[in-house]
């Protein structure tokens, strides 16, 4: 995600001139522009590979000159939002970023509820259970629990990002959006999504149609297809998708006779999570809804 993409967020900011008037758009205050640029750099670092980004990478991807990028990233480093490796000089997310993310998750009572759900899913299936939340055009992995199946898979590291529309979780989230928003996401994320072979907008739209028909998304969760994912989108009280819950494993773990039962387990955990969260006071509630019909439970290891 580039800072330019994130600044718009696909929404009308209401600053258009009125009919019949030549009303200029007001410029954002200088201070807010600085914050926008710093947040853009932070999001670039969050979306980067585990080894991080160099200063020249940050400048190139953000469109900032190197002096400005250095000044901003140094400020983020001073506040422990990013770290710089002393040898490689690459920037990665700092501890303060994760502390705030954890505080935000706990604020909505999501962290512990999701952890319990992942533990039950991993124990019941033997597969890897993953919990992601949406942030703009990205999905952020907040928690992962691996099962006891001998061949373990890890589709995402905790704290890592991927574009909405990528993998099973991304398809599940797109399937919960109206078509016009699906088109917007695919247009704005086209360059990132196209890095995965075969992930054209047309192919993704077909996956979305299939996910809507089935009530769940089943798709490869890495380019070579060595990890498969089965996912459902988690939506808030206003039916807006806020994240996804998934099960991941080698392709053989998702045989046709096993998939319906896995989907049923995901839905069961979603219902339980929704019920517990909906008992919270209005100020703390984050109500959820999961799509799909109930089907028989799978046997572990089948």
From TrEMBL:
Annotated protein name in UniProt: Transcriptional regulator, IclR family
PANTHER family per UniProt: HELIX-TURN-HELIX TRANSCRIPTIONAL REGULATOR, ICLR FAMILY (PTHR30136), HTH-TYPE TRANSCRIPTIONAL REPRESSOR ALLR (PTHR30136:SF24)
Membrane-spanning segments: none
Domain HTH iclR-type: 32-95
A molecular-function term among this protein's GO annotations: DNA-binding transcription factor activity
Keywords noted in UniProt: DNA-binding, Transcription, Transcription regulation
Naturally occurring in which organism (per UniProt): Albimonas pacifica
One Pfam family here: HTH_IclR
Region (Disordered): 1-34, 276-302
Lineage: superkingdom: Bacteria
Domain IclR-ED: 96-279
GO biological process, one term: negative regulation of DNA-templated transcription
């Amino acid at each position: 995600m580039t800072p330019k993409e994130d600044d718009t967020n696909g929404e009308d900011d209401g600053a258009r001139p009125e009919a019949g008037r030549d009303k200029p758009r007001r410029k954002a205050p200088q201070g807010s522009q600085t914050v926008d640029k710093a947040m853009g750099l932070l999001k670039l670092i969050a979306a980067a590979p585990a080894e991080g980004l160099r200063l020249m990478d940050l400048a190139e991807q953000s469109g900032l000159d190197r002096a400005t990028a250095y000044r901003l990233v140094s400020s983020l480093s001073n506040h422990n939002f990013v770290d710089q490796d002393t040898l490689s000089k690459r920037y990665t997310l700092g501890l303060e970023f994760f502390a705030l993310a954890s505080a935000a998750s706990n604020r909505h009572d999501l962290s512990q509820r999701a952890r319990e759900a992942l533990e039950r899913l991993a124990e019941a299936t033997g597969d890897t259970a993953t919990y992601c939340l949406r942030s703009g055009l990205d999905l952020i992995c907040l928690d992962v629990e691996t099962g006891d199946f001998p061949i373990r898979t890890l589709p995402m590291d905790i704290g890592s990002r991927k574009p909405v529309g990528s993998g099973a979780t991304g398809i599940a989230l797109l399937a919960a959006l109206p078509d016009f928003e699906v088109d917007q996401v695919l247009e704005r994320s086209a360059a990132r999504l196209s890095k995965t072979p075969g992930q054209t907008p047309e192919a993704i739209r077909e996956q979305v149609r299939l996910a809507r028909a089935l009530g769940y998304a089943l798709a490869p969760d890495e380019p070579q297809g060595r990890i498969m994912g089965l996912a459902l989108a988690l939506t808030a009280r206003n039916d807006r998708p806020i994240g996804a819950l998934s099960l991941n494993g080698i392709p053989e773990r998702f045989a046709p006779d096993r998939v319906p039962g896995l989907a049923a387990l995901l839905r069961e955990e979603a219902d339980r999570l929704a019920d517990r969260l909906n008992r919270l006071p209005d100020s703390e509630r984050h109500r959820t809804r999961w799509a799909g019909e109930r089907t028989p439970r799978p046997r572990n290891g089948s």
